[in-house]
Amino acid sequence: MNEVLPRALFPGSFDPPTLGHLDLIQRGVHLFGSLVVAVAENPNKKALFRAEERVDFLRTMCADLPVEVLAFTGLVVDLAEERSCSVLLRGLRSVTDFEFEAPMAQTNRRLAPQVESVFVMPSHEHAFVSSRLVREVYGAGGSLPEVLHPVVDQALRQRS
Questions:
Q1: What is the homologous superfamily of the domain 8-127 according to CATH?
Q2: 62/73 Cα distance (integer angstroms)
Q3: Model pLDDT for residues 74-98, shown as the tens digit of each residue
Q4: Among the options 45, 46, 110, 132, which is catalytic?
Q5: Does the active-site annotation cover 131?
Q6: Which strand ranges, in their side-by-side order, compose the sheet holding 67-72?
Q7: pLDDT in tens, 103-125
Q8: Is the dihedral of CA 83, 88, 93, 97 positive or negative?
Q9: Structural domain boundaries of the chain?
Q10: C-alpha Rg value of the chain to the nearest Å
Q11: For 106, which of 97, 112, 133, 141 is 20 to 30 Å away at the CA?
């Protein structure tokens, strides 16, 4: 029996992308065969890296995976429809993530009932990693190269 897997979209700010993100991308590829990774451009937020830089980082990190990486603005459900994705992949590290993600998933379901949110937990070694934490550490003069792809680590060192 040949099952057709749903097409999945993994949206996020990825500012900067971490190995925790890569872990979720790899899990998404395992579950869905391929993945669309969408870098959010939010004009109301001050990002450390431009969307184009984050797209380039992710393309480098995912070079050997069946992943399409692009930047987007607007509603994630509109992008899902545009890219023929019926699944939104989201990561959950903690209860705090769930408290943020659950209302967003319910809102997305209201906006696009045909798009299902699927939550995946990261590997244990990536459960503490967040882009915000990485930005704070590098901004204060520290470094966490073990949680980043080398190109991202180098870019952060140059920004700090």
A1: HUPs (3.40.50.620)
A2: 22
A3: 999 999 999 999 999 999 999 999 9
A4: 45
A5: yes
A6: 67-72, 35-40, 8-12, 87-91, 116-120
A7: 999 999 999 999 999 999 999 99
A8: positive
A9: 8-127
A10: 15
A11: 133
